[in-house]
Amino acid sequence: MTTETDPTAYQDEDAVVGDILAASTSDASLARTIARSAQIEAEIDQDASRFRVLTGDRPTGNLHLGHYFGTLRNRVLLQQRGVETFILVADYQVIADRDGVGPIRERVYSLLADYLAVGLDPEATTIFTHSSIPALNQLMLPFLSLVTDSELRRNPTVKAEFEATGGRPMSGLLLTYPVHQAADILFCKANLVPVGKDQVPHLEQARVVARRFDERYGRVDASQPVFPPPEPLLSEAASLLGTDGTKMSKSRGNTIELGMDADTTAKVLKKAVTDADRNITYDPVNRPEVSNLVLLAALASGRTPQDVAAEIGDGGGGALKKVVTEAVNEHFAPIRARRAELAEDQGYLQQVLARGNARATEIAEATLDEVRAAMQMTY
Ligand code: TRP
């Protein structure tokens, strides 16, 4: 029997939590998360005010069409459905797995321009930067007391990130970034986090932190814990590959960025990989490259992939590329025009960020006050 006052309690619980995190990516658990996500969608339609969403991106490069069709479009939809949304520009997370910050300032403003260009409205959505919110970051301290190193080492997302760095020693920040991410979510008491499958263990970690805070440090209001347990919202978003049929990533030069112009888009798509069969079909398993282009054309033109493929018929790769290029350039023309205008207006972007940061700071300070009160650290 262990109790929360027993200093060995977490060691005993460790194996269990590590297993829970690993299990959160199992098929059965995923099926449950998917079912719950469908239920949440219905609850949003009934009463959007019950939910607060937090999500975010690392400012490590320009956003591309994979981000757009994968998450950005969904964020705009959630905003339109009346869900209060917080969007974090995770600048502090950039240094978890790399040596420098890169051209961070430029990237933060580029991200901001992307957000606003796709339709995120700064009046409805709070956009803020990690490094500007001291009270959020201070939550790290009590939160770190609630996790163990072996639990973090077993976190599947940390493992994956670590493996991706190719043998580089793991920084303390990389090891603890699920805890930082828990602070990102819990500082504003978000109860909904739109994620992809690979991020589900993070959410589990945030739920563990919320629960343990309650068990170990108690409450301010006896009727409810300081932190509500956040839930993942799994999107069914189609996942786009790069133009060579492999994972879309800037370093492979296979991406189409949101802010690219029409000519550059045409050039990138001209080099896209297809195959020798002139009859275009949508068959992601056997023809990943061709199917990915068909999917992109379908997403950009609001049609089904089967429709797009049937229309091209035996026109071959050349016709397919022409159709994709037109669909992408048409869909993104207004977004790109808006983006170009915004990029010219640094003053406005600065103002949007300052307002978001002020609002996030206010909320983070209120939460930190509650945390201190729960911990009896009010003097
Ligand atoms: N890890 C996310 C990414 O790689 C960014 C992020 C930081 C985030 N904190 C978060 C996402 C909290 C959701 C919730 O882009």
Order of helices and strands, N to C? HHEHEHEHHHHHEHEHHHHH
What share of the residues does DSSP label as strand, in percent?
Answer: 5-15%
As residue ranges, the low-confidence spans are 1-12
Radius of gyration, Cα only, in angstroms?
Answer: 22 Å
Helix content: 55-70%
Determine the CATH superfamily of the largest domain. HUPs
Q: What is the count of distinct domains?
A: 2
Spatial gap, N to C terminus: 35 Å
Category by helix and strand content: mainly alpha
Shape: globular
Bound molecules: tryptophan
How many individual helices?
15
- Overall mean pLDDT stands at 92
Strand runs, count: 5
- CATH topology category name of the largest domain: Rossmann fold
Report the CATH C-level class of the largest domain.
Answer: Alpha Beta
CATH architecture assignment name of the largest domain: 3-Layer(aba) Sandwich
User: How would you characterize the largest beta sheet?
Assistant: 3 strands, parallel
The strands making up the biggest β-sheet line up spatially as 1-2-3
